[in-house]
Amino acid sequence: xxxxxxxxxxxxxxxxxxxxxxxxxxxxxxxxxxxxxxxxxxxxxxxxxxxxxxxxxxxxxxxxxxxxxxxxxxxxxxxxxxxxxxxxxxxxxxxxxxxxxxxxxxxxxxxxxxxxxxxxxxxxxxxxxxxxxxxxxxxxxxxxxxxxxxxxxxxxxxxxxxxxxxxxxxxxxxxxxxxxxxxxxxxxxxxxxxxxxxxxxxxx
Length: 204
Hints:
By secondary structure, the chain is an alpha/beta fold. The chain folds into two domains: about 100 residues, Rossmann fold, CATH 3.40.50.980; about 80 residues, Rossmann fold (3-Layer(aba) Sandwich), CATH 3.40.50. It contains eight helices and eight strands. The longest helix is centred in the middle third of the chain and has 14 residues.
């Protein structure tokens, strides 16, 4: 997943996250509305979307024995040669739709770079050195978890959600999650002793 996100951005594309854990109807609505030009997909993604949603899409199968990129160069594309700039789209994340139909929020590269720059001045290297990546990529907090750590050479610990720490202790230094999840971890005494920072995501 992380490799896919980086590959899309390096190739000059914008990513549209589709979490296979989401209801199929919601995923199909997002695909129909956003009209992506290319779909990176594994078996779980195919099953979640259903065959009808894939008919008019160019699909790159991530599990094929002969991947489409096998003959492509391993070096990064030159962003200047591609004509890319800070105003180009980086990703589109859809709202929850709690007040109506979900809407796509388009975020450009410069906005994400501003977040990375801000974070580098707020958090010490030791605080983000082992970041828990527990948020669905369909939620904007995942941008912080993934790219802040990677942009500063830190490690990511990928788990299904923050509550996974209750079953599998990890020596993470930073946790991003919601108040209910951290409360559950505190109740189970499952917050790792190595944790330096806990960021709570609240909205309303």
